[in-house]
Design goal:
With 365 residues, the protein is of the alpha+beta class. It is built from 9 helices and 21 strands. α2 packs across α8.
């Protein structure tokens, strides 16, 4: 038996198919993965993401710690509740994890809130704790919280009905990649699907009533299967597939998350990245669109004019009705390539992700 979120019994009662996901018993789908995918693209869906690890940092030097710990620069966060996406690197520039950090989330005594991945929770907490000690920063894992992701073009207008009437307008006014505390709930306008919506952190006891209320408002229960096809359509990386401790951000499509300026900020992994920042990475992460019948999957070989590469994530896209993938290939590779699918070379084309955002195709088919 794996770890379970506060919503596990509800998932079972709703008929969800449960699978192991990074040591957690999680719903992969309830009825139809494709139907759940389309619900998010066309209306609204809710995901249980309580397996994610919420970490609160306290102490005057919390910002200083994060400027050392993260490749992106939290000095960019100028207002309370503003969020930043970043990688946390090891000394060789490999990605320990990717995460979101919020400045001043509105919780008394908390300077920053981080949300890290479920499968890396234990190693992340150990790493963050070790780095925090010299800065005298307190690190608290918020095991008391559940987290729901409500995503889709109608998600925000439905989700705010969970809040007190006096908080609805303020929640709807939140800018992209920002959040605020409303009572005991932290509501952030973030997500992992390529659609608008909220990620809501709340006391564990509130999660089941909130989920049931969302269902009553027409929000579809969605599992991790749809979450994966949605994130891949949106060109969003999955830790352990598209990057890990053996890869660095410049070869993982994440150069935009590395703040090399100001030059005096010595974050962990900087020394290893500096030569790549100057000369360029020998590999790059690209999007692939399959031009023939078949399904792209992780680890399939990609033959390009610049040399061989490999698919890191692949799936059938319900929105495009085509097979798509992310692949790590030699720098400079482009145009048409071949992917080895069940021993047969199939034609594919290199494209720049995302494939789909805000319900619409972003590539030419």
């Amino acid at each position: 038996m794996g770890r379970r979120t506060p919503l596990f019994a509800l998932h079972e009662s709703l008929g969800a198919r449960i699978v192991d996901f990074g040591g957690w018993d999680m719903p992969v789908q309830y009825t139809s993965q494709i139907a759940e995918h389309h619900a998010v693209r066309r209306a609204a869906g809710v995901f249980d993401v309580s397996h994610m690890c919420v970490v609160d940092l306290a102490g005057e030097r919390s910002g200083e710690l994060l400027r050392h710990l993260l490749a992106n620069d939290v000095a960019r966060l100028q207002t309370p509740g503003k969020a930043l996406y970043s990688c946390m690197l090891n000394e060789s520039g490999g990605v320990i994890d990717d995460l979101i950090v919020y400045r001043d989330p509105g919780v008394p005594g908390v300077a920053y809130r981080m949300v890290v991945n479920a499968g890396t929770r234990d190693k992340d907490l150990a790493w963050i704790g070790a780095q925090a000690r010299p800065f005298d920063v307190g690190v608290r894992e918020r095991t008391d919280l559940a987290m729901l992701a409500v995503q889709g073009p109608q998600a925000r207008e439905r989700a705010v009905q969970l809040l007190r009437t006096q908080d609805e307008a303020a929640a709807l006014a939140l800018g992209s990649f920002s959040g605020a505390q409303f009572g005991e709930w932290f509501v952030a306008r973030t997500g992992y699907t390529g659609e608008d919506g909220f990620e809501i952190m709340m006391p564990a006891a509130d999660a089941v009533p909130a989920w049931r209320k969302l269902n009553s408002l027409g929000v579809t229960s969605c599992g991790l299967g749809a979450r994966d096809t949605l994130r891949l359509e949106a060109g969003m990386n999955l830790y352990g597939n598209d990057m890990d401790e053996t890869t660095q951000p410049f070869e993982s499509g994440l150069a935009w998350t590395v703040a090399m300026q100001p030059a005096q900020r010595q974050f962990i992994g900087r020394a290893a990245l500096e030569p790549l920042a100057r000369a360029g990475s020998p590999r790059q992460l690209v999007g692939l669109l399959l031009l023939e019948r078949g399904v792209l999957r992780g680890h399939q070989r990609v033959a390009t004019s610049a040399g061989a590469g490999e698919i890191t994530s692949g799936t059938y896209s319900p929105t495009l009705e085509r097979s798509i993938a992310l692949a790590r290939v030699p720098a400079g590779a482009g145009g048409d390539v071949q992917v080895e699918v069940r021993g047969k070379p199939l034609a594919a084309r290199i494209l720049k992700p995302p494939f789909v955002r805000n319900g619409a195709a972003r590539i030419a088919l």
